[in-house]
Amino acid sequence: MPFRGKYYNWKPYTGGGVKPCALNCLAEGYNFYTERSPAVIDGTRCQADSLDICINGECKHVGCDNILGSDAKEDRCRVCGGDGSTCEVTEGLFNDSLPRGGYMEVVQIPKGSVHIEVREVAVSKNYIALKSEGDDYYINGAWTIDWPRKFDIAGTAFHYKRPTDEPESLEALGATTEILVVMVLLQEQNLGIHYKFNVPIQRTGSGDNEVGFSWHHLPWSECSATCAGGSQKQEVVCKRLDDNSVVQNSYCDSDSKPPGNQRPCNTEPCPPEWFIGDWSECGKTCDGGIRTRTVLCIRKIGPAEEETLQDSHCLTHRPIEQESCNNQSCPPQWVTLDWSECTPKCGPGFKHRIVLCKSSDLTKTFPPALCSDHNKPPVRIRCSLGRCPPPRWIPGEWGQCSAQCGLGQQMRTVQCLSYTGQPSTECPDSLRPNTMQQCESKCDATPISSGDECKDVNKVAYCPLVLKFKFCSRAYFRQMCCKTCQGH
């Protein structure tokens, strides 16, 4: 299951500051833990050194006879329901020192000892150590100091503590399965080490005969479940034959110990009940989403077996399986309109668009300052519609002919213009059109009065040439060669 969008490898976290029956997990390789569930699986120990168990997320007391809610307690000898007569207290204060420092033996702890406490009298630079009878160090050996923590030694858990402002200590419930030796690594004057533990009594009866011990079955425990199949257990304990008192198991022959008994009980199915799954992730992070969960009517028919029933079999009101979530309004967001056309029409240019700060439902427009600047979409981008056409020569209209009658000249303007109509100097001269050309204007016929006769002037001999070279359109030649030019 992801946690805040990431996946981790988890291991149980049982440190301080957490509810004992919540499922607290430590992310491997990271320095954080989190509560993944409000309740661990029923039957999980509340604490490592306690018989109490978690049920429905709450810590329930378990007696030393392993019966839920039982008032049975261990005595000082760790005998369930005992009277404390099977052990005796060993207690003392060790305050010897070595002038040059080093390891010194404090006390030997016999096999089977319980409620072991070793503690410095005052804070010092010395260190409590622990080893076996065969000189194998378990804690703080070979001039190497271990971190304070729990050590599993000799069949029990030793808790080694070394606070910065309190004396060092070593504690265990026991019973131990071997002889242990408490040592001290001296680095300064020993201010004293107090020790206390309870040692089993090796009792004998009257006379020279040793008291007998034998195995006995306790009464059946209560059923572990009220329905769908639980179990009852019949534990085996060691008892004295003379007074029938319960003693430590080490007094009886372990090879002849009979097995504990177990039998099923309360095998009838449980009443139908609603199974309610976890809520899904919300469909939206804001503006109201929907989350769902599985709701089924089930009935437990065995320790690990359930059946699904019709909803009508469950008598209580059916829990909801869908609800709204994240109903808070979303923050304003940027909304873009369509891009404009690229301008200019050719060559590199830009496209523009309008960007508005709108409400999440797009019904309201806000000042731009209410939207985040760092994710504002661009309002202008570069564009190109291809290369522009080259400049070209643009000729104007021809002007009037310079001659009102006959041949003359006429002019026009020729400009080099870009595609936008701006003057340019990049038109090739070889393609430049003419700015001047020859022109001819028609001459009106010279009116002849009724009294005058149209004739060639006698002294003019070139009238045939005037006609040949088409000079009749000129007023002078037309007058001098009237007859020749008549009709032409």
From TrEMBL:
GO MF entries: metalloendopeptidase activity
Keywords, in A-Z order: Disulfide bond, Repeat, Secreted, Signal
Primary location class: secreted
Record PANTHER family: A DISINTEGRIN AND METALLOPROTEINASE WITH THROMBOSPONDIN MOTIFS 6, ADAMTS A DISINTEGRIN AND METALLOPROTEASE WITH THROMBOSPONDIN MOTIFS PROTEASE
SMART domains for the chain: TSP1
Organism this protein belongs to: Phoxinus phoxinus (Eurasian minnow)
Phylogenetic placement of the source organism: Eukaryota, Metazoa, Chordata, Craniata, Vertebrata
Protein name per UniProt: PLAC domain-containing protein
UniProt xrefs under InterPro entries: ADAMTS/ADAMTS-like (IPR013273), ADAMTS_ADAMTS-like (IPR050439), ADAMTS_CR_3 (IPR045371), ADAMTS_spacer1 (IPR010294), PLAC (IPR010909), TSP1_rpt (IPR000884), TSP1_rpt_sf (IPR036383)
Keyword field contains Disulfide bond: yes
Signal peptide: none
The keyword Transferase is assigned to this record: no
Domain PLAC: 450-488
Gene Ontology cellular-component terms listed: extracellular matrix; extracellular region
Subcellular locations according to the entry: Secreted
Gene3D superfamilies: 2.60.120.830, Thrombospondin type-1 (TSP1) repeat
GO BP terms, alphabetized: extracellular matrix organization; proteolysis
Classification via Pfam families: ADAMTS_CR_3 (PF19236), ADAMTS_spacer1 (PF05986), PLAC (PF08686), TSP1_ADAMTS (PF19030)
